[in-house]
Amino acid sequence: MNITKNTTDNLNAVLTVTVDKADYQEKVVDVLNQYRKTANIKGFRKGQVPMSFIKKQYEQAVIFDTVNDLLQKSVSDYINTEKLSILGNPVPVMNDIDWDAEQLNFDFELGLAPEFDVDLSKVEIETYKVKVADDEVQKYVDNFASRFGSLKSLAEAEAEAVLKVDAKVEGQEEANATFVRLEDLKDASAFIGKKVGDVVEVNSNDIFDTVEEATQELKTEVTEAGVNVSYTIKEINKAEKAEINQELFDKVYGEGSVDSEEAFRNKIKEESENMYSKEADKQIINDVVAKLLDTVKFDLPTEFLTKWLLTSNENVTSEEQAKEELVKMDKSLRYQLIEAKIAEVNNVEVNAEEVKQAAFAAIKDQLKMYGQTSIPEETLQQIAMSALQNQEEYNRLSYQVFTDKMLEIFKSNVKLNEKEVTFDEFVDIITEKNKELEEA
After folding, report:
1. Which of residues 424 and 398 earns the better pLDDT score?
2. Chain-centroid distance, C-alpha 242
3. What percent of the chain has pLDDT over 90?
4. Bridge partners for 161 per DSSP
5. DSSP 8-state class, residue 95
6. Where in the chain are all domains bearing CATH 3.30.70.1050?
7. What distance in Å separates the CA atoms of residue 421 and residue 304, rounded to the nearest whole number?
8. 3-state class percentages of the chain: helix first, strand second, coil last, to nearest 5
């Protein structure tokens, strides 16, 4: 077998693969012998079918499959060995093949990745530091106090009560056990003052803001006219906020992590600013990507990519459709190439241990959100390893580690002009940027 590459221009090449009969004949004979041993053909005993008969029926198909497998492996090996940077996959050129010939020739078109440089030092963007105000810290304090509070039983319903009820929709036989937070209702007046055992009959339009909300809460299809519902009250409770003391501090951050209300508030402010910092980091990536797409220019082998889409995407059935699809994927394809170039220059790699540590950190943060701060590290490791058994989750975390490394490269090389903003200002900025991106 012989493979030669003919470069037609900077973005296109043709691989010519010459396959001699000796390259595949032995494999073909082995397969035909196996067919002969197992073939059940009327008039012949099993294993006694003449080879001439087997060849007449199967040889052409076996040669085709064997050569095709040989071509796929050899072309792939050649591309890897020669370190060819290609786009898409090789596209076979449709030539007439004389399968009886001693030598077979196959051509494959290649789309070559363009050559270009990326100078991050020429990129300049504005980045944001979100300052957390005292009133926002207070919202977090109130939220923690509510989350770690307790339920107090009430004799009758009041505005902030939570009712355990059996809800029966008119026309349905079964009642659904559920909870009703009176402060969430559009109008809770029908429930105020009611006691355990009382039945409240209302139309869904009187207590829910939208048909969608009524449908979700009642677990049944609700129309614009609403439905009549009977609520039988089983329990009446009120959530009482936890006191702002050491017990609450320990529940939120772990025993002894903070020892005063001032330290508690400072910790909340620090964590909030860190959380917003992560959002600001995401925007750094978005803004750098936008700048690079605007400034790093190179051509793509569009004619080849059109052919590749036609041969590889079953949903693309015409050249016009392939060209339309190529326009849609242009920006993502260009950034993939830019990203790969930056990673190559900076030796960015991701290993299994880094993915494992990312999974561990993600599980730890997730459990912390639910106040579980004292789970043994060994248990956390087991949960993380279990999550990584899912290939999709492993790939997601692997790309997250890669993205984090790219972010550090951007921070180290791009000129960042930091601007201090409030949270509301930050939200307005991001909303406007996303709007511009959608319109682009």
Report:
1. 398
2. 38
3. 68
4. 238
5. -
6. 2-112
7. 47
8. 50, 20, 30
Indicate the CATH number for domain 2-112: 3.30.70.1050
Mean of pLDDT values over 81-91: 94
Q: Provide the 8-state DSSP code for 257.
A: S
Instruction: Please say if the pLDDT value at position 121 is more than 90.
Output: yes
Handedness of CA 83, 86, 88, 90 (dihedral sign): negative
Residues near 175 by Cβ (< 8 Å), separated by ≥ 6?
166, 167, 168, 230, 232
Residues of the chain with CATH 3.10.50.30: 150-240
The residue type of 336 is Q
Q: How far from the centroid of its chain's Cα atoms is residue 412's Cα?
A: 27
Q: How far apart are CA 183 and CA 205, in angstroms?
A: 16
For residue 236, pLDDT beyond 80: yes
Tell me if 129 sits within 8 A of 419, measured CB to CB: yes
Kindly report the pTM of this predicted structure.
0.69
| pLDDT above 80: residue 88 | yes
Burial 297-310 (b: 16+ CB within 10 A, else e): eeebbeebbbbbbb
When the candidates are 3.90.1690, 3.20.20, 2.20.200, 1.10.3120, the CATH number that belongs to 259-439 is 1.10.3120
- The Cα 83–Cα 78 span in angstroms is 8
Q: Which two tokens stand for residue 283?
A: 């925007």
The residue that leads in pLDDT, 45 or 1, is: 1
Rounded Cα–Cα distance for residues 286 and 431 (Å): 13
Q: Any idea which fold 150-240 has?
A: Chitinase A; domain 3 (3.10.50)
256 or 123: which leads in pLDDT: 123
